[in-house]
Amino acid sequence: MTLLKEVLSFNKEFVDSKMYEEYTTGKFPDKRAVILTCMDTRLVELVTKAMNFRNGDVKIVRNAGAVINHPFGSIMRSLLVAVYQLQADEIFIVGHHDCGMSTLSSEAILGAMEKRGIEKDTADTLRNAGIDIDSWLQGFESVEQSVEHSVHMVKTHPLMSKSIPVHGLVINPNTGKLDLVIDGYKKETTA
């Protein structure tokens, strides 16, 4: 049985037996918050459980590394929608230790792409078109610095209300322990 058939078979049973009823909630987050976190499989349920959130409490946005790369990309748009349309009043950026993005190199991912059939010349074509594919595919060295970067991107965004606290945390993917990087309630001081 293919994975798709397995999913659809289970889904029929899920709907027919009304298993969905325990997850029924509204579209607005009860705790009025949104979390940006990594798509790592270890975090699927761990992040919300470790933060004492249940289904319906928060909006969750996920990507590779919990990184905001572009101020007008889909991640930032999702955070803006959560605040202005879905009643989120706080933002949590949650990175994690042992993140795959901390070891990601553009050379490694481009090599993996080539093994999956992407022509080697494609990267050069993109570079020649002015796309910095190497930086775009590069990971980060420090999860704490990456979280700080993403918090900064949100806090300084021209369309984000300055009244929204933006917190930065790093979670241990094995234990769920949270380390505070930035307390969004505190005012930033400049040196």
TrEMBL record:
Coiled-coil region: none
Binding site for Zn(2+): 38, 40, 96, 99
KW Ribonucleoprotein (keyword) present: no
GO molecular function terms listed in the Swiss-Prot or TrEMBL record: carbonate dehydratase activity; zinc ion binding
This enzyme's EC code(s): 4.2.1.1
Catalysis performed (reactions): hydrogencarbonate + H(+) = CO2 + H2O
Co-factor(s): Zn(2+)
SUPFAM superfamilies membership: beta-carbonic anhydrase, cab
Highest taxon above the source species: Bacteria
Cofactor annotation remark: Binds 1 zinc ion per subunit.
Database matches in Pfam families: Pro_CA
Record-linked InterPro entries: Carbonic_anhydrase, Carbonic_anhydrase_sf
Membership in a protein family: Belongs to the beta-class carbonic anhydrase family.
Annotated protein name in UniProt: carbonic anhydrase
Organism field: Bacillus thermotolerans
Lineage, highest ranks first: Bacteria, Bacillati, Bacillota, Bacilli, Bacillales
